[in-house]
Amino acid sequence: MYADKFRLDGKVAVVTGGSRGIGKAIAIGLAEQGARLALASRKQEALDGVAEEIRKTGGECLAMACHVGKPDQIKIFIDKVVETYGSVDILVNNAATNPYFGPIIDASEEAWNKTLDVNLKGPFLMTQAAARIMMQKGGGSIINVSSVGAFKANPMQGIYGVTKAGMVNMTKTFAQELALVNIRVNAICPGLTNTKFSEVLIETKEIYDFALQKIPVKRHAEPSEIVGAALFLASDAASYVTGSCITVDGGMMT
Ligand code: NAP
Fold first, then answer.
1. Pocket of ligand 1, beta carbon within 6 A
2. What's the CA gap between 122 and 117, in Å, rounded?
3. What is the CATH number of domain 2-194+222-248?
4. Contact at 8 Å (CB) between 175 and 243?
């Protein structure tokens, strides 16, 4: 059956930023397809709640606090995943931060460093660590959650946009270099999605109305609407897909 290609039974899937929003939705979707989950974010309690939800439906889930801007914590986390499951087959680099909202000319060096550490250096180190394990196991799938902000200027969110554009290029580079070891690397670029991250954009009427002008379907997405792209990219249904960026944006980039 062709639908079997979407199954992920027994695969080990790491999701960063898995405690809420898009990461949580993707984690639950992966578990429903049979994957064994390992979730990371900074707050253990929030992660434990998601892990409990997954276990209640018969899934397996390791939940461990890990700040993805801190290389030592990434190493401890990946070591724990391997100790627990013996493998990493799928990595979803989803965690991100956007600490500064304002003109880029006024942004502080601290905001620059924090945003680059979490949004770019973290996924870079996670990818290296996971890919080294995948190489030993014969392959894997890496999914980077970028943004439509990767493709255009991001007024008031400039540094964030720089990191998301960097992530797209990093996706393509890893995809080329890891193609022959059977590791596929792709990106998902969501548009405006209803999460804590975007709450100010959705709840501030002037910003939201301005955003809707650019979205052909005239609404924002729910986190569950981003999941399908992740399940596809994680699975054998995407066996010939690498280096791609899938926009899930209600037509915003058209
Ligand atoms: P969200 O609901 O705020 O979730 C962010 C997740 O990242 C949380 O689990 C958070 O948990 C975790 N996180 C934040 N900083 C972290 C750090 N330093 N280390 C580890 N985990 C960290 O946001 P979201 O909207 O789902 O965002 C998920 C991804 O989608 C991000 O890459 C974002 O750029 C992208 N995206 C979102 C939108 C949108 O409109 N929402 C649009 C395009 C792209 P803790 O607080 O516990 O650390």
1. 16-17, 19-23, 40-43, 46, 67-69, 94-97, 118, 145, 147, 190, 192-193, 195-198
2. 6
3. 3.40.50.720
4. yes
Q: Which residues contact 91 (CB under 8 A, 6 or more apart)?
A: 13, 14, 126, 127, 130, 140, 141, 142, 143
**Spatial contact of 45 and 38, defined as CB atoms under 8 Å apart:** no
Which amino acid, residue 96? Answer: A
Q: Whose CA is nearest to atom 23 of ligand 1?
A: 197
Interacting residues of 161 by C-beta distance below 8 A, sequence separation 6+:
147, 149, 150, 152, 153, 154
E strands present in 116-212 = 140-145, 183-190
Q: What is the pTM of this model?
A: 0.99
pLDDT in tens, 203-242: 999 999 999 999 999 999 999 999 999 999 999 999 999 9
Torsion of CA 29, 32, 37, 42, to 10 degrees: 40
Atom of ligand 1 nearest to the CA of 19: 9
How far is it, in rounded angstroms, from Cα 226 to Cα 234? Answer: 13
- CA-wise closest residue to 154 among 187, 196, 191, 118: 191
Angstrom distance (rounded) from CA 174 to CA 154: 25
Condensed to tens digits (0 to 9), the pLDDT of residues 80-119 reads 999 999 999 999 999 999 999 999 999 999 999 999 999 9
Which of 15, 37, 41, 117 has most ligand 1 atoms within 8 Å of CB, for mutation? 41
Antiparallel, parallel or unpaired: β 61-65 and 90-93: unpaired
Residue 102 makes CB contacts below 8 A (sequence gap 6+) with 156
